[in-house]
Amino acid sequence: MNRFLRAVHVPLGILLIALALPASAQVPNYFAPGGGFRAGRWDAYVAMGGASPHGLSYENVGGSSDDVSVSIDTYFQGGVGVGYNFNQFWNLNFEMQVGAPDFSVSGAEGMSGDDTVYLGSGRLNLDWNILPGNITPVLSTGVGFVTLTVDDPSGGVVCYPDYWWGYVCYTDTKTEAAFTWNVRGGLRADFHNGIFVKALAGVEWWLLDGAEGVPYSIFGTLSVGMSFR
User: Fold this and answer.
1) Neighbour tally for 50: CB within 10 Å
2) How many CB atoms lie within 10 A of CB 171?
3) How far apart are the C-alpha atoms of 85 and 191, rounded to whole Å?
4) What is the pTM of this model?
């Protein structure tokens, strides 16, 4: 009988101690809306990194029987982002980045050329911070867009008068926009005063009109920012 009472008293005593603790000393419900130190805070950050697009292939370009391959160099990209932490684990964020890599074109009968493509991208992602601590692995997925702008080889040069510079001239350009989706993973570290660092790497797929298959780009991003209410 005494052994049974001792077995009951031990867990009962632990329960009474837990109930007697002040609310600040109890383990927070990280999964509840507003749970954890990240909950309800906004993130604003600068994002820098690089990307390495996979080669693009096009068939019957311009209605002809010519096939063309496009190779885009690995390039640096930078931008800004903003996010919102629903609780300790879930963060919804949107970021925009730009870059200007060189590219080369090759085709039948020795056709070749090279130029610069101006890339702009936007990503709307949902991050899962796997652990509740200050340092946590992150898994993320989302959708977005990419724009590719190049000089139009069939266009001309446009000039207009300018009050300060006399005449300003520029070359006609062509822009293509595409839907994208991505997956990425990495680490997030939160420091004092709301400063955080996030390092992520992943793959982004581009749904480019006319391209063979679904081209993709491997990318990495280092973000440094501030969390605030």
Assistant:
1) 17
2) 12
3) 16
4) 0.79
What pLDDT does 124 receive? Answer: 98
Residues whose CB is less than 8 angstroms from the CB of residue 222 and which lie 6 or more positions away in sequence, other chains included: 47, 48, 49, 197, 198, 199
Six-digit token string for 11: 């867990």
User: Residues near 195 by Cβ (< 8 Å), separated by ≥ 6?
Assistant: 224, 225, 226, 227
| Residues ≥6 apart with Cβ < 8 Å to 56 | 69, 70, 71, 72, 208, 211, 212, 215
List Cβ neighbours of 93 (8 Å cut-off, separation of 6 or more). 43, 81, 82, 83, 84, 124, 125, 127
- Going by the DSSP 8-state scheme, the letter that residue 73 receives in this structure is P
Q: What is the reported pLDDT for 179?
A: 97
Residue 84, classified by CB atoms within 10 Å of its CB into exposed (0-12), middle (13-18) or buried (19+), is: middle
* Residues constituting the chain: 229
Where exactly are the structural domains of the chain? Answer: 30-228
Query: Which amino acid makes up residue 218?
Result: I
Q: Which fold has domain 30-228?
A: Porin (2.40.160)
| Burial of 117 (C-beta count, 10 Å sphere; 0-12/13-18/19+) | buried
Q: Cα Rg for the chain, rounded, in angstroms?
A: 26
Amino acid, res. 191 = F
Closest listed residue to residue 42, CA positions, set 194, 200, 211: 194
pLDDT higher than 90, residue 40: yes
